[in-house]
Amino acid sequence: MDRPTPAAAGPQKSAGPQESAGPQDSAGGLEESGPAMTGAAPRLYERARRILAARIAEGALAPGSRLLESHVAEQFGISRAPARQALERLAAQGLLERGEGHGYRVVAAAASAVRTAAGDGGEAPVHLAAEPTWARIYKEVEQEIVARTGFCAWRVVENHLAAFYGVSRTVAREVVARLQQRGIVKKDGRLRWYAPALTPGYVGELYEMRALLEPVALAGAAGHLPEGAVAALTGNLEAALARAADLEGPDLSALETELHVALLGHCGNRTLMEAVTYYQSMLVAHTFLYRWAPRFYATEPFLEEHLTVAHPLAAGRVTEAGEALRVHLRNSHDRAVHRIAVVRRDFRPAPLPYLEAL
């Protein structure tokens, strides 16, 4: 029997049918990556989708060819969750249809539709590069843990993690080590891994450290920013404000990352950035919170707050930009505590064998 996929193990509403763990667009389909505001690489399922669409366009996958989720996952070296997303998106675009029993079947489609789905024109061919095994499961593990830390602290059991994903203990150990670098897990007094609960007190500590460190990193980055970096940041924020009602969780996460990770990363002090990254575990949590918490604001307040940082930075007023960043973090703390409280009240996490509630 196949193990439950992470998409089936996501948070659920406390009453009513189980929620899907995958973000959905307004039409009910799985999300697109959204506008490329930060130059980030496409998600795994999107890269797999493009390759499969290109093969359909080239005739390498002829009409009637059968595609199974497990085979796509194995072929691309990805988990079944992104493989499923790729197939569902191709079906939504009319290139596949549900086969009898299970799986999908390639259908004849208009050439224009196939070219569009494959990324017609201009793009270089997309190939999934070989990834280390830990990288194939890391983001799923990170999201599954963070999605549960709003409820309580969790013991992370390495050997159960390895068994759940069918990987070696060495791979599981690498995943947990990288979770530690991101501030997601820590070791207790008996040297056991655990993910601390996002209590108001702990969230306050994280934001207090960020308010101390990030303005320093901003001051260091100011003199090393690539030409046009602040203008690009400002442009992306203004474009987001113009379509604020349409922004989805991934869009908001990308905008947060552009300032707090990409721009600060130019400070040149690796030791400082390691510390900054460690206390930015709330950025990971926000990926979950933006998706699951209800929409509280017609326009997310951080968009305007980021502009109060970008405008003085563009004018060379670095101290003013740093102070605006501190104010933004203070305000963001209050909103994060509120969102976590709502998620804790309205959702419950499904059990996972490698997590033990503390």
Outline the structure in words.
This protein is an alpha+beta fold. The chain folds into two domains: 6-118, Arc Repressor Mutant, subunit A (Orthogonal Bundle); 132-358, Four Helix Bundle (Hemerythrin (Met), subunit A), CATH 1.20.120. The chain contains 14 helices and nine strands. It has helices at residues 44-58, 69-76, 80-92, 111-118, 133-146, 158-165, 169-181, 200-222, 229-242, 249-263, 270-278, 281-292, 301-314, 318-346, and strands at 12-13, 66-67, 96-98, 104-106, 154-156, 186-187, 193-195, 347-348, 355-357. A four-stranded antiparallel sheet has the order 6-7-5-9. It has a three-stranded antiparallel sheet with strand order 2-4-3. A hairpin with a 5-residue loop joins strand 6 and strand 7. Helix 8 (200-222) runs antiparallel to helix 11 and helix 12 packs across helix 14. It is globular and about 65 Å long. Residues 1-41 and 120-129 have low confidence and may be disordered. Pfam families: FCD, GntR. Keywords: DNA-binding, Transcription, Transcription regulation. This is GntR family transcriptional regulator. GO terms for molecular function: DNA binding; DNA-binding transcription factor activity.
Compile the SSE list and pairings.
Blueprint: E1 12-13, H1 44-58, E2 66-67, H2 69-76, H3 80-92, E3 96-98, E4 104-106, H4 111-118, H5 133-146, E5 154-156, H6 158-165, H7 169-181, E6 186-187, E7 193-195, H8 200-222, H9 229-242, H10 249-263, H11 270-278, H12 281-292, H13 301-314, H14 318-346, E8 347-348, E9 355-357
Antiparallel strand pairs: 1-8, 2-4, 3-4, 5-7, 5-9, 6-7
Helix pairs in contact: 1-3, 1-4, 2-3, 5-7, 6-7, 8-11, 8-14, 9-10, 9-13, 10-12, 12-14, 13-14
